[in-house]
Design brief:
Elements lengths: L1 H16 L2 H8 L6 H7 L9 E5 L21 E11 L11 H15 L4 E12 L5 E2 L2 H13 L8 E6 L1 E2 L4 E5 L3 E5 L6 H10 L63 E3 L13 E4 L18 H13 L9 E2 L33 E5 L5 E6 L12 E5 L18 E9 L7 E6 L1 H4 L11 E9 L4 E8 L2
Parallel strand pairs: 1-7, 2-3, 2-5, 4-6, 5-8
Antiparallel strand pairs: 2-11, 7-8, 9-10, 12-13, 12-14, 15-16, 15-17, 17-18
């Protein structure tokens, strides 16, 4: 029995000492599998901390008049571009390609769209230079930006997200406020990406200045002017690997990922604020908490969402003026375009839409939804040719881009006609793929009863019964 206990203790101690690098290597994981693996195996892998850098080109102003609930009436769209830093020969250990980049875009939109902040993917590219695969500290981060600008990599019209192989002792860095961030590749599809981009919108760590004259009181009396200056984030201190005790709902003093744990602390390590009060309910699940564990951070507060929008307004004519885009841009595919697509061409490029949105494709100028709904990055083959696109995160009512072409969708169809509604005497006319897509097909029919059958190349068939009378 003692040997069994000792073995269990050894396994637990190993899980505490593992790094994200070890977890990925030992289990041959892709970065989109990391958090799920860690949570399902109840591992305790600590996020590395980050460094936010006050933007030297602008005077920081985070003293806004008040914290109000935001109606999120104005919708903001920001371009985002990713730079994948490889070795000089173009290789890297952790795979970062289109799939991983699109998952990162989806992660951004899934967490910022609730505040009417949207990201439009504008592309990604490689920087093949071994000198920049490892970044050590803020000065090298700033030097990387200079290098990117001088060598034509930097995109003035977008948020620039740099992805390196090793960010020494850090998971990310960001300009605050600004449009530039840096992520170690292994952290790209984790809360670290959200953490850094929030810094770009002038969101501070929730533990800012804890233990100093600038600290926020536990009683909340100075929450509007101290700490992160946001009133609905509780006063906090810097967390550390040995400070994870007295978690609500967990008497064993361990981080629990399942079973309804609230992931918040009561009096961790009996630490006191600068008013000599014990810290209460430190919000380790907040995206801006420090040194939390993988799978724990899961949300912003409403106050943080309001502050992001306040920052956008405050710097709308300076920092964010060149990187904004239109709502209509979200409806455009990132691969292919609507104009000039030949639906019968076997070489036509499929239209691909960025992940992170819930799309519906509906009949043009009609309100009812086509049979299918999707949230993938390609239009389903089974949708009719004459459709328009709806993005539910943008509007549950508005649609754009009527007559979206459907490359490689149609095999043709049939027109079944009859003089009466019972179709007891009917005729069948076979029509080809071009004819079935004719916008004037129904208008050119004579009076009578018809069944229009459309055959798709994926094997599906759709039919519509109509009565034509002038």
């Amino acid at each position: 029995m003692k040997n069994t206990v000792f073995l269990l203790m050894l396994i637990c101690s190993l899980s505490f000492s593992q790094t994200i690098e070890q977890v990925i290597e030992e289990n041959d994981l892709k970065i989109n599998e990391v958090e799920g693996f860690i949570k399902s195996n109840n591992l305790q892998i600590e996020h590395d901390d980050c460094i936010s850098i006050d933007n030297p080109d602008f005077v920081k102003n985070d003293n806004y008049a008040s914290q109000q609930n935001s109606e999120n009436e104005t919708q903001y769209v920001f371009n985002v571009y990713f730079h994948v830093i490889n070795k000089t020969n173009g290789t890297r250990v952790v795979e970062i390609g289109e799939d991983q980049i699109m998952d990162a875009v989806a992660l951004l939109n899934a967490n910022f769209n609730q505040y009417s902040i949207f990201f439009k993917f504008t592309g990604y590219g490689s920087i093949n230079d071994s000198d920049w695969t490892t970044i050590n500290g803020p000065s090298e981060f700033i030097a990387l930006q200079t290098y990117a600008k001088e060598n034509g990599y930097y995109k003035n019209e977008a948020f620039n997200v740099f992805i390196c192989e090793d960010l020494v002792d850090r998971s990310g860095m960001a300009m605050k406020p600004g449009t530039v961030s840096l992520i170690e590749d292994k952290y790209l599809l984790s809360s670290s990406l959200l953490h850094e981009v929030a810094h770009n919108f002038l969101i501070h760590h929730i533990y800012l200045y804890a233990g100093t004259p600038y600290c926020e009181y536990v009683n909340g009396s100075n929450s509007a002017t101290r700490g992160d200056k946001i009133t609905d984030t509780n006063a906090s201190h810097v967390l550390d690997a040995n400070g994870l005790d007295n978690i609500q709902g967990n008497a064993d003093d361990e981080v629990v990922y399942h079973g309804g744990t609230q992931f918040s602390y009561n009096n961790p390590n009996n630490k006191l604020d600068c008013n000599d009060e014990l810290y209460q309910d430190v919000q380790i699940a907040n995206y801006m908490s420090s040194n939390s564990y993988f799978g724990v951070r899961n949300s912003f507060t409403e106050g943080q969402g309001v502050r992001m929008r306040e920052s956008i307004v405050n710097y709308s004519n300076t920092i964010y003026s060149d990187v904004q885009n239109s709502i209509s841009s979200l409806y455009q595919p990132y691969v292919g375009n609507y104009a000039g697509v030949n639906p019968n061409s076997n070489t036509a490029t499929p239209l691909k839409f960025q992940k992170g949105f819930d799309y519906q494709f509906v009949y043009c100028n009609k309100t009812h939804v086509v049979k299918k709904q999707c949230s993938v990055n390609e239009i389903p083959i089974g949708h009719p040719y004459h459709t328009s696109i709806k993005i539910l995160q943008v509007s549950s009512v508005n649609t754009e881009n009527c007559n979206i072409p459907r490359p490689e969708a149609y095999n043709g169809g049939q027109i079944i006609s009859s003089s009466n509604m019972y179709f007891d005497n009917y005729s069948i006319e076979e029509i080809n793929a071009e004819e079935i897509q004719d916008a004037d097909l129904i208008d050119n029919l004579n009076d009578g009863f018809y069944i229009i059958k459309t055959n798709y190349k994926n094997g599906e068939t759709m039919q519509e019964t109509i009565y034509k009378s002038n």
